[in-house]
Amino acid sequence: MKVMEYHNPVLLKETVDGLNINPNGVYVDVTFGGGGHSKEILKRLGSKGKLFAFDQDKDAALNKIDDNRFVLIQENFRHTKRFLRFHGVVTVDGILADFGVSSHQFDVPERGFSIRFDANLDMRMNQNEASSAFHIINQYKEADLRQMFWEYGELRQAPLLARTIVEERKHKPVKTTNELKEIVKKFLPPRKENKLLAQIYQAIRIEVNQEIEVLKSFLQQSEALLKPKGRLSVISYHSLEDRLVKRYMRSGLFEGEPEKDIYGNVTVPFKNVGKLIVPTQEEISINNRARSAKLRIAERI
What we know:
The chain is an alpha/beta fold. The protein has twelve helices and seven strands. The protein has two domains: 12-103 and 211-300, Rossmann fold, CATH 3.40.50; 111-209, DNA polymerase, domain 1 (Orthogonal Bundle), CATH 1.10.150.170.
């Protein structure tokens, strides 16, 4: 079996330490990828421990771990609760998530995730999904494109980007990443070109894969799945994700504040464990992907 090359997992020790592993416990890694975090969890499990991993990318299956304590489920982690129940699991001792695009996905040109390569507009984490970046760029209304670039890319140029794309696609479909770059390059100052391109790609990728909706669903399911004192260990890579994770761990809500009872008390599902953890400069020098990583750990009350 061919093994796909993945870079070193980010914050490996810190993320798995955060789970406070019980050797006989049941754990879930919802972003299996190259299997780095899963392998570390398995090292800390005893013979009665169990690890379930999720990954919707068919390439990740090539990294499946040969261990009778391990089960790989090839599904989007928005379905975590349903597929764990299929395997007879109702509650677990810990859940790990390392969000964002894997290094492997960035490094395979034809997947269309990276600004470095020319490729068909794709960006699907699950290659079986119908909607791709091509569909979004060529079919979305101007207002929807504007909202996408503003909300998911945090781009001030969102109205101009949307309007220009709609005008250009009237002449011919936008099929490749280079064609898209050519359309938007007038809005990219030379010194900020790569940064803004990355924000444009991020916005499209989030929309293609419905990442924000998936994240919200996952966090709500984690609340239901974790046993009391069970741990949730989550790495985010951009402010949109981190803001949602931070709010949910603090209050069990994505916006607003929890309601107080008649005595002024609030009931929340989690308590934070420690402070925000970010990579050291040493780790960033070894793995540049780690530079924007933020790890938050919470315990189920």
